[in-house]
Design goal:
The chain has 2 domains: 2-138, no CATH class; 139-177, no CATH class. It has 3 helices and 9 strands. It has helices at residues 89-102, 117-127, 165-176, and strands spanning 2-3, 14-22, 27-28, 32-34, 39-48, 52-66, 73-87, 107-108, 113-114. The chain is elongated.
Length: 177
């Protein structure tokens, strides 16, 4: 939570804050995310405007997950920007009436404090890759046996057409007799 009491009623005033905070739980997706308690570097600029406090800045951290093809660990550097206008309570009502037509979310200041967590979470999660890869040309795992295809060049299995499986079983019976 950031206290913006000294900014809250003086349009044009500004304050910059740099923070190193531990990442909260669930800062990402199931496949990739920023591990809990790892360091997030946050630079925030708070600007007082007529409607409220404009919060803009950047968040940097290290996301850890697994490759979507071979399940090896991947590490991504996250460095993303964010911006949000936190409305004063008396201005929020008018803004909500206007926003109903446009379906825009209005975020309101509560007790002259700003909760950065939802803003940072949105910024980080949208910056994460949908399907992280250890390398762009990762061949993944063998669908038959699960072997790392990058480790075994030319790995293959003899695959018979299922339409011929009855004929194959007849040959197997002939060999046994």
């Amino acid at each position: 939570m950031l206290d913006v009491h000294e900014l809250s009623r003086r349009p044009g005033s500004m304050r910059e804050v740099s923070l190193d905070l531990p990442a909260p739980e669930g800062f990402g997706t199931v496949i990739i995310g920023i591990p809990q308690d790892s360091e997030l570097e946050i630079d925030v600029r708070l600007e007082s405007v007529v409607e409220g406090v404009l919060v803009s800045g950047s968040v940097a951290g290290e996301a850890v997950g697994e490759c979507g093809r071979c399940l090896d660990e991947v590490v991504y550097d996250i460095d993303n920007t964010f911006q949000e206008l936190f409305y004063f309570p008396e201005r929020a009502k008018a803004a909500k009436e206007e926003a109903e037509e446009d379906e825009v979310e209005i975020v309101e200041l509560v007790d002259d404090e700003i909760d950065l967590e939802p803003l940072l979470r949105d910024s980080v999660v949208f910056a994460l890759p949908f399907q992280p890869l250890c390398s762009p040309d990762c061949p993944g795992l063998c669908s038959e046996c699960g072997v790392h295809l990058a480790d075994e060049e030319g790995h293959s299995h003899e695959v018979l057409d299922p339409r011929w499986s009855t004929l194959q079983s007849m040959f197997n019976e002939t060999k046994e007799s």
